[in-house]
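Bug report (template v2)

What were you trying to do?
Predict the complex of my protein with pyridoxal-5'-phosphate.

What happened?
Run completed; filing so the output is reviewed.

Input:
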Amino acid sequence: MSAPIQHAGETRANRYRRRLAETVGRGQATYTPTQVVITRAKGCYLWTVDGRKLLDFTSGVLVTNLGYGHFRFEKLYREYARSLPRNAYNMLTPLQVQAAERLIKSLGYPKAQKMLWAASGAEGIQKAMWAALHRHPERPIMVATRGGFHGKKGLAGDVTGDASKNPNVRFVSFPMYEEHPPAYYQAELDGLAKAFPNRIALLITEPYLGAKGSFHPPKWYHPLLQAWCERHDIAFIFDEVQSCHGRTGNMYAFQTYEVEPDLVVLGKGMANGEPAAAVVGRADLIDSLDYGEASDTFSGNPRACAAVCATLDVFEREGIVEHCRAMAPRMLEGLNALRDQFDFIRRVRGEGLVYGVEMLDDETANRCVLEAYRGTGKLGVHFLGPLAGKVLRVSPPLVITPHQLQQALEVLTAAWSRV
Ligand SMILES: Cc1ncc(COP(=O)(O)O)c(C=O)c1O
């Protein structure tokens, strides 16, 4: 076992890092060189156990879109959950029905008819894929866009990345550095339809490649996938585990990319930190799963439903999406200014409040995470460990203010001058 992460001068945090290394397997989390130890969080700020303040550029992992300790969210969450059992697996609560109806309504397009709960993104993905596979048992083939991340478990893991151990999975290209004309992608799809006539059950894609390092496709790409699915009666599954609830500057990314998927999978931000996920879409697909075929212990539990309702309330009452949209150009301008200042920043990609800042190489990216954390001493900026080796993810809570953004950019200017 390698030595635990330690940082000079952080007596308390170092003790927790050592204790963690002795008790919890490192496979639990992805590598983040700071391994920040937090004892308090409020709004967009975090406080470390050694008393330092950080501006959060992660929202956990794009989860706490409303920031930490949001007054209205916390109050409503407590009210919704009051008096209810923490688990209601074999019972029905009015709250679950209300949360489901409101969630479906929030998607607001004709195919958003019915839903299934899940307790993590990967579970939601798996349930969506099961639904599509059950509807057409004679169709075993699953198509995924290359470079996606849909989770690590089960079928979600099978359609993640560039290659699969599952012999029924096929990949098609997703525009990344190289953007081919539409005919290129169309030819790949048509080749598959020809190779597997009436054998393809589903196509799954992400609105943008998140974990791969923020690649946001041209606006014609997803409609092209959708049209192909419609032509061949293939279920079009849109993985919005990361993009849901405002990230791209619309409530949902299918609105940003102008498609109407057969199934949309939601997760992360939909309950502002309470573990909850969902599949929403066509009733005939959802109903292809019979009693128990998509059941598990925690899905749709009262706390998750309370958090879903409280999150929707805050989005409705506080104009969170509009705020995100207003902050987007400021963020882009700020990140582009950093790119112009520092040679080691190679590219900035993103939309709404989700960006990838691509660095020269992996070592520089890790240095940048560490220097941002050290910041100006008084204030640092908290990042996830680099994605795809060298891309820093920028995804602050959607409630970040212009002042806080300015603060973060100033800290980064000072911190990255030391790289
Ligand atoms: C687009 C996307 N899909 C699925 C997942 C898996 O979600 P979970 O980690 O909750 O299983 C993630 C998580 O990062 C994601 O970003």
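What did the reviewer find?
The pocket of pyridoxal-5'-phosphate is lined by residues 120-122, 125, 149-151, 206, 210-211, 239, 241-242, 267 (CB under 6 Å). The chain has two domains: 11-69+320-416, 87-300.
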